[in-house]
């Protein structure tokens, strides 16, 4: 009897000791979004779906209420302090200000994957930089997207006339790349002129005012590129306010329901849909695979594509999956 | 100390009757000066289209500044107005979505959502008022708490998404004009003739945004309540001296609750206007800082943060000063960060003038 009790106790002790290691065998990831908005909410959906599929424990930090490192860094640091993670998936809100906090986390043994936005210039394979430590950057090719927006807008306006770009935060990699791509795209058409770029700082009301001002300064603007959720919605609103819906061609970035509604109503002409859920799921898949195989991600970069909604395909049921909802 | 500053400031040209008149009306003078300068520096600044645009998109700030005026006169502050507005906007949108999904006619869905939201918007003010008067929590803290609660509720309702799929009538009314004129061809009421091709839209003159008579009537009613009604007299009395108000028999706590309820009702009304103007339910983004611009407009309009002073039309003037400063500088090609500096300098000037001439306005 005594032996049996001792044997049971030994088994229990072994089980208790073994339990944490069994629990820890499940990879743990933390997702830190850029700001509370539909794009990152969609990304969270993709992350959660992939985590369930891959057997990953995922925690989502508080959503920063406003864009910027001053809002994001405290949230990142608090979330990391509250738990032990194998990988942090983060949309850095600054190309520079997030380098040091992320490096500090990396140095303590947590891998980093940046999603949607990047630190430095996003080329994590470049030698001799202070931002080569993340496993990968996973996000849309924003330069290409901006350029294709310009090319499509050119077609819509007959390759001539003044166009305007309503942007958001000037210190964000994705935003800067879209502006650069759009500027380069417009420059390919000698009879087109980029009349200006404004920055709404993720405030729709600012975007609305700035586009109204632009339409007032240049009454002959023929096309507008609204460069993210808030810029696009504010720009559309301004064109409706000005009574110019349909007369000014609108290319909008991000397939929110209001942007898609505007396309259906003829208030917009083109909507670019990124694939935030796919970005999220790719990040979890790549992270889980790395933890398992320890093989580096090729070029430290994964670039999902994007799709365009037009008046012709907006009602196609197969396109519904790309709407942020 | 204030008296000394005022006495020193009262000497020289500023001590003359003209100087005092200038101090009393400096915001109006500054607005006039801006209009003249920007007419020279900004392309197409001086145009009815631009002025109508500015007034049209300031409808929400007009309402928020009016809300803040009542509170500031009592010596308080309401930091929750911006987020209560966002909560009202997404709340109304969600109600409309649900009713439309239940096959309710769009007109009824709009009416029911507006009614529900306007009634519901009394609640944040009631809570603010009770917390401030019964539990003696400073207004800054109490309304900042409501700021967070309203923001969280709005995000919970919207799940972080703008709420679309709402009736087209909203945007048509919110962005409509009384008259559409194409000289020599037509004068149309409320909408442009559908036969006009897109290529000719720019030729149409639109006159009197529909929001203009709405906001003029709303501000006139609020001004009347403040200047002529007992409600307004009690508001000034409390801000002038709380003790004196108590001694004169005013139910101070009860009145303060009413003031905060009125403030959040006006913020809810601003949310309704917002949904008409944008056609979507929008949570307030953190960067928007509606509440701070509302307080700024009230201060520019001559109200004192110490209480006892302020007028509805003067606060509306403050809104216009901020709006035309931003608009004029932008149209003149000034970079955004200089515009922020200009607004900051202007606010400091407003407070300095208030200190130099405490009785000027």
Explain this structure to me?
The complex is a heterodimer of chains A (325) and B (361). With 325 residues, chain A is an alpha/beta fold. Chain A has 10 helices and 12 strands. Chain A has a 6-stranded parallel beta sheet, with helices on both faces. In chain A, strands 7-6-8-9-10-12 form a 6-stranded mixed beta sheet, with helices on both faces. The model of chain A has no long low-confidence stretch (mean pLDDT 91). By secondary structure, chain B is mostly helical. Chain B has one domain (2-10, 25-356): Orthogonal Bundle (ABC transporter involved in vitamin B12 uptake, BtuC), CATH 1.10.3470. Chain B has helices spanning 2-9, 17-24, 26-41, 48-57, 59-73, 81-101, 106-120, 122-134, 139-158, 168-174, 211-227, 230-240, 242-247, 252-278, 290-300, 312-331, 336-356; strands at residues 177-182, 186-189, 205-209. Chain B has a 3-stranded antiparallel beta sheet with strand order 2-1-3. In chain B, a hairpin with a 3-residue loop joins strand 1 (177-182) and strand 2. The model of chain B is unreliable at 1-10 (pLDDT under 50). Chains A and B meet through helix 2, helix 7, helix 8 and helix 9 of A and helix 4 and helix 16 of B.
